[in-house]
Amino acid sequence: MDGAFWTRAFDQLAAAFGRAEAALCDYDGAIGDGDHGSSMLRGFQEAQAGFRDRPAAVPGEAWIRAGEAFVENVGGVTGMVFGSLFGAGGRHVAGLVETDAAALHGMFAAGLAEVKKVGKAREGDKSMVDALAPAVEALRKAAENGLPGPAALREAARAAESGRDATVGMEARVGRARYQAAKGRGHVDAGAASVCLVLQTLANAAAELDRTGGR
Question: For 131, which of 78, 94, 166, 192 could close a Cys bridge (C-beta 3.0–4.6 Å)?
């Protein structure tokens, strides 16, 4: 998975979040402002526009530029935490020309650490961390077991789905949502749903790359 793959992957992320915008806004509306889906779409569209003018040469560049698109164009916590995820992940693999399972684990692990740092969230707080942390663990196991990148992303997507679904029974402990935490019980966390969609989309993009051999 080289720079060209990641450039195409961010195109696919913009399309996926366009389709999911309304659903993500509905999730967020349970205990938030109801704009999470629109914010995520804006971030990926800005990244996509930048890649259209100048494709990424290497994976780290793609992630760093996507992170900058979120920080510069998306307000509030969403821009900060997803910008941190992509920015930290991209810096972790700076200089690599391709990303395998081990690199993917490093990227997402670095992103998770930065998200925890800036967002002050931990597992069980009903946030994106609840989907991201199990995905990172799945990537670690996949790399240790010698799985190729596409298979590793499939495992990570499955783990993120379980983490996302677990947020339904949680009460929010971070952000403004914590002030009406009980109201969020019974609803999927929007950030966790976005992490899940990111990994599902990347897994599909990698599977397509695997089938076509990069053609």
Answer: 192
